[in-house]
Amino acid sequence: MKHTTSLLIVLSIINSSVACGGEATATPEPSASESAAGKESSAQTEWKPSTELCSPDHEYCVKIVAKAQDVDHRELIVSSKARVLAKFPTFGYLMDAFWSPDNKYVAISNRRANAGDYLWVISLSNGAALKMPDDLATEMGKKNLGHISGDDPWGKTVKEVTTRFTECAHDRLDHNFLFAQGWESASDLLVLEELQFSNEPPQSATITAPGPDGKSVTRSVTLGFYGPGAPGIWIAVNKTCRVTGNKIALKRQTIEKHEHSSEFVNRAWTYGAYWMKSPAEDFFTSAQAKQAKGDLDGAIADYSRSLELEPKNSYTYYNRGNIKQAKGDLNGAISDYNSAIELGLQYADAYNNRGNAKGAKGDLDGAITDFNRALELNPKHAYAYHNRGLAEQAKANLGGAISDYNSAIELDPKYANTYADRGVAKQAKGDLDGAITDYDRAIELDPKLADAYNNRAWANHEKGEDAKGLPDAEEAVALAPKDANSIETRAEIYEKLGQHDKAVADYRAALKLNPNMKEAQGGLKRLGE
Question: What is the pLDDT of residues 113-131, one digit of tens each?
Fold first, then answer.
């Protein structure tokens, strides 16, 4: 009998908008002469972003510039005349800048992706960020700067919306945005949060990737629609925020339903030079669609064409690496992850997934090094802890494996496989009761987890309680009828229970699936077959 464990590959798909390669390289930036001083939002038929926006008195300016011609990495710079007040990493482009009447603060809308938090609020007295886009705040380890104090958009606000407007189901929330709108007074900032709910249930597809033991992990991908005229129900949450010192807090908000997106969203989606005009991004987006539909070969072909046109896009290498790993091309996957990382992609999932590929090839030390780096980038990456635990377990470091499983469970207490794998480690240490407790929890969380039934059956077999283990062995075979391990487990239990013919039949069935299984060969020999 062989214990079975599960390798978790994080199949995160980086969107083309997040990659920002299409946005940044589609056309040259507008010239500085196109900047607008004291610009206010208004509907414009030919709107395009400015490289620099200045206060009405030209005392302060904000701009977004590429770092040393690296279009994938930009900087948001706030200056007073020639003096730089603040500098922050970002990507995308400027939409608006609103200066408080007393010139103490600037509120900026920085279009960073096809949806999301675009809002910056920066103090002009000391250059401190009171608020930055939430994804960047998390990436920089300053998560508190990604939120407006007292605001709870994903909790209280969405609950109120779905309660008031029953056609807005929580699982149909497609896109959300956060923009600056202007200043009501020197200390009161107007902010627009806009939510798009689809009229129809979301369509989804699944992507499957094999682990080193041949078992598969699937991830569901939601297929959304965005762009001018995107259908759906639009909810405007108009917020008034109090800005004092280095703090921003929600003062009040109102919620309204609209039939169409706002002018802010339209501008974010319709600037032609940044919206689906790059041939490289066209191939990138086509690859994503094919990947979601399961056409992995077609997706690889389109990612490859995208790289021919834009060979330094780290995100394209990352996505193509995920598909190659899903197809079992471990060398190809590792090569693509290497390229993504060499191009500067410091993304925890890239290291996690490369670690998985290395582990599948037997390079356990290399895998552990990658999992360590993933955890440096994201100390709350439960899957990296889980996968490092598997690698440590494969190296016979059971204590280290159990420690990593414990950390993974603390971060994600509802992932059944981690309990099952921790049970395997405990069982290997001789802690059969502890192992059974973990298998119990795994089955409670996922009643279809065949490995947990198989391993619990074997733990009871090792305790000499074969009659108790038999129902689990039968359930494991029922859930995974082509799994030689589960069939062999049931054979050994039948043998112990004196059911000779059933044991022989199972040993033979296991050998038919795996002709080299020594446990099944030994069982037949013991039974005189």
Answer: 777 899 999 999 999 999 9
